[in-house]
Predict the structure.
Amino acid sequence: MVSTLPKDTSLTTAFACSDVVLLRAAVREAHPGSQPATDEDADYLRAAAKDPLLREALSISSPSLIRTLDDVCAGRIASPKRIRRAVRAVSRYRLRMSSRATPFGLMAGVSTAHFGPHPRVRWGEAHVKCARVDLEWFGGVLSALESDEAVLRKLRVVVNNLCFVRGDRVINPYVPQAGKGETLTREVSVRLTSAVREIWDRARFPLGCTDLVDALADAFPAAGGDLIMASVARLVRAGVLVTELRAPLDDTDPLETLLSRLDGSDGAFTARTGEVLAELREVRRELAAYARTPLGEPGPVLDRVTDRMRRVQPADTPVQVDLRLDVDVQLPDIVRGEVEQAAEALWVLSSGHPGPGFLTEFHEDFIERYGVGRAVPLRDAVDPDIGLAAPAGYRFPRSPRTLRGKQVADSEHDDLLLSLAQGASIAGEREIVLDDSVLGEIRAEAGTPPPSMDMLAHLISDSTSALAAGDFRLVVVGTQTLAGAFAGRFAPLLGRDGDRIGEMVRGLPTSAPQATRARLFFPPHRPRAGNVARVPVWADQRIVLGSFADTGRPDTLGLRDLAVVATPRRLAVVSLRTGREVVPTVPSTMAVDRQAPNAGRLLHEIVRSGEPAWPGWRWGAAESLPYLPRVRVGRTVLSSARWKPDAALRDPAAGPGEWRRSLKEWRVRWGVPDRVQLVENDQRISLDLTSTGHQDLLRNGLSRGRPVQLVELPAGGKCGTGWLSASGGTARGRTNELAFSLVRREDTAARGAPHGENGPLSPPVTGAARAVHLSGRAVFPPGSSWLYAKLYCSSERQDEIIARALADLLAKLPDLQRWFYIRYQDPDAHLRLRFHGDPAELAGGVLPLLGDWASGLSASGMAGRLVLDTYDPEWERYGGPEAMSCAEEFFRADSAACVGQLRLEPSLPPVMSRRVLAAANCADLAVRLLGDREAAGALFDCAGTSGGHEARALLHGEAKGLIDPAGGWERLRALPSGPELAAVWDERAEALNAYAQRLRDLNGALPRSVLPSLLHMHHNRLCGIDRANEAAVTALAAAAVDARQRRAGRPR
């Protein structure tokens, strides 16, 4: 494999920038001023119609506008309103061709750049077009062909793995929208007849449609072959069966694939199908011919092929074109260094913002429902009937979940940005410069950077000589969470550089060690979105949802092969075949949140579960301000100055004169410059606000009711893009964007990784055997051998209830085989009480006493309601079902120990604070479970990076010498009530030793992985739910055990 990363790893930045950079550039030179465009200017439109490059670009991107231009030139349109509308449209496209670098048909193109000691630029004219069928048009063609049963007989089919059985029907929950304006179909269902059941069972893996029909004819001899074939065709139309024409998006030439699948069979098809196939062969030939034409000189072939395609399947834009620029660019190494520093700044600044609230709440609810370590089939997890339903806001199908509360960001982070913005505004400054005095403190708390990212930025410099001298600015315009995402769709155009990008993506690190990447494929909700998602696999495995694939192959996973697992800090996806964690990858810029079925979206987003917000600039609470200044680090602008137009500029009732006066007043009040960019979602064009034509473009944009803002020109327009020109330094140059791929340095990951935070899943999933248990696991509802009750009470009352009331209840209960308690919130605080015994004894003896006890607490104002629930043991977390009874016996012993310690606490000296007491318990448990040599390292793994400072202070202060399990707790036993405390621990140790021995018998060696769960639940029982305190407690225990080892000359 060829590395695209720099060989020098001596730099201290978190990321290394790949040597292959995607260059995106406008096809025409940037215009420093506005272009003439006035209302009712038919001459302007006639001139535009004679511009060959504009005309070809519009023929690809807006054929309807070409028709309008032709009508104006022919005198068929004279309406001032229609001409005004056409002027605005043409002006926007012309501005786009010179002021926006985002690839869009022939208006901007791509190439690659590399790094070297000196800048070098060659801009040629031999640009290369790549013409393909538009996937929305192609989807209509496929549907028409699949309606011919003779075509179906030539194809293989497979059950759509997004479909499932609900009651007596087969449900297809995800139906991509066929085309623009089509009615949205929520789901399709088919009655599960015996014949459909037979098809469902036989077509789990691909098989020939003819073979399927023959098998059904044998199974149902009374049904005729035609009827059976009609049933198969109906399932294809419903999307329950998928034909091999619906290949995943790794097929970079679907038209060629289609023709090769059906080649030589024309005689077997209907006349219409034969005509369509003949036309498609001509389309293939003519697209290739068109791609060879020079830019701006398409000749008649473009009109001919688009007309032919519309005869086959109506569509406005049936052709999709990308442009490979004839450019050779070498960037100076100083740019690479600047990019790496900017990427680190973006990561540091985003670390204070939490990840998506919908994913955080889904994680919380997943643990509440399934616990930690359980592999829940992905389909079950997102099913609203038997699982949690997809996270809030998921759309396909629409999730019934809603966010419970507003997401809270880091207030200190927000306060810092607000103060910086306000200070700049008061001082009349257009720019905030961030240096180490601002970033240093945030960096110390930032944790581990993400494995990779893409950073998209304008490169602004007047010439290559200025670039070489370091006189340049980078202006960040976007980020992606995966290196190579911006370049993905263009890889086939980029030759060897495209291969190198693929090699980089294939070798990207993952957040969790031992995880394997898998390329995720699904049909997008709007088929046209597939135009930007058609990317090579770039992974050893692939996950295919809703498309044709053989999931029986070792390298292909389907929905039924995947499960979701929770750790206390994150969610993960595992393969039920191998037990390994899988990291789904989508190396494209497709908006997955708007295009994926729920299962696909969750697979895509779960990768960042438990992590901060994705790297990128966020103003946080300051975002609502009407003006925000530019933010810069070094030579890189992280966020450009921006203005939000006020209500007066959005008033549709204002007359032209009144509106222009409002614009002038607003500009003076907020210091808005003449030349700005109009930004609407991810669309942006440059405007000159002194031009009436451009003012009208602004008002038209504001009138649509969408979020619109004005952003300064890159770097405030103080320098240009002359470096990217034929001469290497002119007044113009090309508007450009460079997509830099950045990969986390290995030493950075090792330094910043919190112990255990993104480590291997614990305990490891064991593959297909685990999946069998999922479908038939034992649960214990009320009336079974487990009585599970929730006593709702405030967290402030829980200590008293546990130490006094619970102890009193236990004294009254009959002998129980096992019992234990935990504290919980769902979101209301409560105690969970679980009792194991004979079902009759639990129902007739324990339950009445429990009810009376709860009623007494309620009458005294100590508690609220009592609720019965079903106990679902978390055996995945504690060594498997064979070890669960021993684990539950330890839960009983630990619960009894915590009750006893809470009763003893008032008699303990102040030095034995709750935190020190909990740390002593954790140290005792770890040493007894693992031995003193292994315990320190295991405790450090549990603690992570939090709480270390407080632990060291306590260890050298009041807790010095107290936490000493290897020393027999000598100092602790000398404290008041110390002997009683040690006795409680000794009694608990019997159950712990039995549990440890059971684990050794089952697994051959004690799995260290159960310790985090034991410590977590012990802290829960003794101290309550407090992540920060839990981290501090575990850190103190780790430091104390480690210190003892060092004193004994046995460092870990």
Observations:
- Confidence is low (pLDDT under 50) at residues 1-11, 752-756, 762-775.
